[in-house]
Amino acid sequence: MGLVSGLVIGMMIGIALMAGWRRMMAYRSAKRIAKAADIRVLASVGREELKKICEDNFPEWVSFPVYEQVKWLNKQLSKLWPYVADAGEMVIRESVEPLLEQYRPIGITSLKFSTLSLGAVAPKIEGIRVQSLKQGQVIVDIDFRWGGDPNIVLGVEAAMVASIPIQLKDLQVFTVVRVIFQLADEIPCTSAVVVALLSEPKPRIDYTLKAIGGSLTALPGIADMINDTVNSIVTDTLQWPHRIVVPIGGIPVDISDLELKPQGKLTVTVVKANDLKNKEMIGKSDPYVVLSIRPLFKVKTKVIEDNLNPVWNETFDLIAEDKETQSLILEVYDEDIGQDKKLGIAKLPLIDLKEEKEKEIELRLVSSLNTTTVKDKKDRGTITLKVFYHEFNKEEQLAALEAEKKIAEQRQKLKESGVIGSTMDALDGAASLVGSGVGMVSSGIGAGVGIVGTGVGAGVGVIGTGVGAGVGIVGSGLGAVRSGLTNAGRFMGRTITGSSASRRTPALLVNSAEEDGGAKPLQ
Asked: How many CA atoms does the CB half-sphere of 52 hold within 13 Å?
């Protein structure tokens, strides 16, 4: 009897335990399903909506990753890298070497790759973000990092100095690459691809320079020249709003909407500077200002000799392609024999300007715009400007685009004829190929109005349509507008110093030739 009752009680307890365990598992399963549903709902909620739901209980450790990890892509890239590197070396030589020549600074007569190898270490893609901000386009942002082992040697030649091979060591690249796919309704469903580097975060290219079999001191300032050249190439060709547009698929398509176009005109009056730094051992600095939005389109003021508080009151017009991301750069130099010395630099973001409203601004000069490398933090004075921004309409935009192309062509001709050492040189006076930028944009193209350097006269090409006996050729730097050089004919450092006195600098609109063979701006 006792045995039977024990078996019965044991069976009942076992059944109860099994029922309890099953009930608990069902409860836990239901709870997990409910939690998964809640998480799925929260995953579709943005940061701001989640803050409203949680109010003061929102945890700070909650993050919303912008970029998705792509470990699988990095694995494939590491396998493909030997083939990509071989193809990339050829593409870089063909595309970058012309840019090195185009952006080559004064003082360097040749700048080319003597050795180029991308090494065995593949780049790493930290993440990818896919967006669709505009109908008919897919935007892919790639967080790109590369700390490779490339072997890059530049052959650098300068006047009166033997060629020095300079190696770029410890190269590291940190940037976000934006790729825009323009969609089409035909296979391969993409008509064009746009590639650019985002300006924020600013692309970082870190490296150290080492002279092979020599010393960098043989070419004073060579490190700064190469750094400026690399920065100018990246800023002016790859960094947004600048971009590379590649039609693909063989589909005939209009890609003009994808290309960079002039957006507006910035009229800048360089009024004065105060308390400039003196770079001279005897006397005072001879300052002038170089202005640019793009490095290829620089203009400059006249030189004020022996003065640390110069007054210029000169006006220039510059083209802006993207008001939201571009800035006006002002560099103040001391004219000197050989290489001009930089007194300071200032930056004015165009996004801070209101349209059709003149504004007077005082900017403080610094030694460098790269705040991470600034060592000299001494006061370098201030520069005072008046700025006026005008947004182009469709007709003005097209006219400005054509004028910009003409300016670039004429700068190249001046470089080939030896008047300037680089297409990045700043020109001044009425002989300037940039002058007021696009003086004819706001007034339209009329009869007798010449685009920069397109005027053709009796055996000469003068700015605009000016024609006269003995008129000098601007392209050769002789005679035009009193030669566009100083009376001593000096060819100094980064710029060509002019002798013109009128300072509106409307280089695009001129009267016919004067008695002395010069050309003057229309009144």
From this structure: 4
Angle between helices 222-233 and 71-102 in degrees, nearest 10: 120
Compute the chain's Rg from CA coordinates. 31
Calpha distance 291→293 (Å, rounded) = 7
Structure tokens at 34: 């409910």
Distance CA 486, CA 6 (A): 120
Q: What is the mean pLDDT of residues 135-162?
A: 85
Number of other residues whose CB lies within 10 A of the CB of residue 459: 9
> Is 243:194 a contact under the CB 8 Å cutoff?
yes
Instruction: Identify the CA nearest to 234 among candidates 207, 261, 272, 265.
Output: 207
CB distance 474 to 431 below 8 Å: yes
pTM: 0.58
- Secondary structure (3-state) at 51: helix
How does DSSP classify residue 185?
S
N- to C-terminal Cα separation, the chain = 128
The DSSP string of 80-117 is HHHHHHHHHHHHHHHHHHHHHHHTPPTT-SEEEEEEEE
What is the 3-class SS of 452-475, one letter each residue?
CCCCCCCCCCCCCCCCCCCCCEHH
Per residue in 108-124, pLDDT (tens digit) is 788 888 889 999 999 99
Note the pLDDT of residue 372: 60
- Within 10 angstroms of residue 411's Cβ, the number of other Cβ atoms is 25
Nearest Cα to Cα of residue 372 among 229, 206, 144: 206
**Is residue 380 over pLDDT 70?**
yes
Which pLDDT tens digit goes with each residue over 81-103?
999 999 988 888 888 888 888 88
Do 451 and 135 touch, CB atoms closer than 8 A?
A: no
| pLDDT tens column, 481-491 | 333 323 333 32
| 3-state DSSP of 186-246 | CCCCEEEEEEEECCCCCCEEEEEEEECCCCHHHCCCHHHHHHHHHHHHHHHHHECCCCEEE
What single letter denotes the amino acid at residue 161?
V
Residue 302's pLDDT band, with cuts at 50, 70 and 90, is very high
Whole-angstrom Cα distance, residue 436 to residue 319? 9
Cα–Cα distance measured from residue 353 to residue 314, given in angstroms and rounded to the nearest whole number: 20
Long-range contacts of 457-463 (CB under 8 A, 24+ apart): 457/513, 462/510, 462/513, 462/519, 463/430, 463/431, 463/433, 463/435, 463/507, 463/508, 463/510, 463/519
